[in-house]
């Protein structure tokens, strides 16, 4: 009923690679076709055995959506998603598109055949999914509820916290998505990277606490004077130098959220180089 095919795209941000899920027997839904790698597509087609009826994409990042078009062409199955890579941003994040930088891994060519919205049902002959809008990692991020299990894309990972890179990523939306997922009371989570999560409530609590402590670290650091995101990342993260740019994007997400909440301020437009200070 459920098969998992691991894409050959391991990295510090994707872990062992992208999990492509195949759900169903008579009709098969492919959830996150993954990167556009011929060998991975061939593995999906072999597992689908001519029964792939739906292609669902959690969000328009290249490691999730880039393989959708070729898989659709090979099977005739429609591609369903919240929208393009630009979809789902809050008005505030939309106002930062030209100044905040970011855009890592965006699949700017992605175009679903059908757009789906929060709480919409998608069904095959032997399965039923409910779309859950879970922005935070990306504005148009969807998770898919199957019975009491949630395919949660990149919003919750078991081995790491997800990258939140504005303006596509939004920390306040992320917290709201954690609340929304927690309220589902699922028995398990199936992330797009890494192993299944068997204790969803505990993992959600851990991630919420982690982000709250990161905000507290930033506020403590700003008590010593104004700083930008990169400077703060170097001071509060203990990661290899190659991961500091991603850390700085996460810090910027925290700074933007803290500014929206009135705890910090910065003169002029928000950019990666903006100097933030305590209000």
UniProtKB/TrEMBL annotation:
Protein's UniProt keywords contain ATP-binding: no
Pfam families recorded: Lactamase_B (PF00753), WHD_BLACT (PF17778)
The keyword Hydrolase belongs to this UniProt entry's keyword annotation: yes
UniProt-listed SMART domains: Lactamase_B
Location of the Metallo-beta-lactamase domain: 17-193
Annotated InterPro entries: LACTB2_WH, Metallo-B-lactamas, RibonucZ/Hydroxyglut_hydro, Sec-metab_biosynth-thioest, WH-like_DNA-bd_sf
Name of this protein: MBL fold metallo-hydrolase
Keywords: Hydrolase
GO MF, one example: hydrolase activity
Native source organism of the sequence: Paracoccus aurantiacus
